[in-house]
Amino acid sequence: MSRLTLEGLEDQLDELVMLVSAVADDGMERTGRLEKAVGALREQLQEVVDLAAGEEEGAGEEEPPQPAGWVERATPEQWADLADWVDWYQGHYEVSGEHRLPPCWPRHKGAAEELHGLHAAWKAAMLTDMKTDGTGDAAVYWHDRYREDTLRRACSSITRACFNGTHAAPKPVPATDRSTLPAPSDPLDEQGP
Fold first, then answer.
1. Mean pLDDT score of the chain, rounded to an integer?
2. Alpha-carbon gap, residue 70 to 81, rounded angstroms
3. pLDDT band at 35; cut points 50, 70, 90
4. I need a surface site. Which of 23, 102, 133, 137 has the fewest CB within 10 A?
5. Alpha helices in 132-170 (DSSP H)
6. Hey, how many other C-beta atoms are within 10 angstroms of the C-beta on 46?
7. In angstroms, rounded to a whole number, what is the distance separating the alpha carbons of residues 89 and 142?
8. What percentage of the chain has pLDDT greater than the value 70?
9. 45-56 residue pLDDT tens
């Protein structure tokens, strides 16, 4: 073999050794990163296990969340948004007569709850209508199913005097007479023939 060929083979061998060394170093680095990732994952898993065990121990101690109406949980921004929409709605649909809401409607909780529901349903219907480029039936369904009936219910939640321009606070409703509730051993359906 010629000297040129041997030197070329030696160069190739040196290059191969460097490549193998680089792969081994890279493999060690990757192995180290992998071991760290596995360790971190084990720690997170243990935290989840510990948290779950703590929740099981505390189960029954916490009361389940209680539902609350929109009126009780709404922010001032949400109230303003609803008021803006109600004003738009009454103008847009030219609401008149017995279905025109008096300006004091926010002071009537039942009306506010109904109007919030109407607004939420309107938003959903109009967004769906926009997504379908007006080819769906969401808008017509909202108009047919919700608009008039919900507005009628909202108006029925407002004291009649308010429709004459003067706010009248709702009269308190008497609490349920608890003495009329059946006792645990006295089911209602045992009235006999």
1. 83
2. 13
3. low
4. 133
5. 138-142, 148-156
6. 10
7. 13
8. 70
9. 777 777 777 766
Mean pLDDT of 4-10: 59
Q: Tokens at residue 63, please?
A: 């009361």
User: CB of 111 within 8 A of CB of 155?
Assistant: yes
Going by the DSSP 8-state scheme, the letter that residue 145 receives in this structure is I
Residues 6 or more apart whose Cβ sits within 8 Å of residue 129: 136, 138, 139
Residue 47: CB atoms within 10 A of its CB come to 10
Cβ atoms of 90 and 137 closer than 8 Å: no
* pTM greater than the 0.85 cutoff: no
Contact predicate 154/115, CB 8 Å: yes
Is-contact 95 124, C-beta < 8 A? Answer: no
Total residues belonging to the chain: 193
> Kindly report the CA angle at 141 between 131 and 119, in degrees rounded to 5?
75
Q: What is the pLDDT of residues 163-176, one digit of tens each?
A: 988 899 888 889 99
Q: Determine the Cα–Cα distance for residues 107 and 169; give it in Å rounded to an integer.
A: 8
Contact between residue 139 and residue 126 where contact means Cβ atoms under 8 Å apart: yes
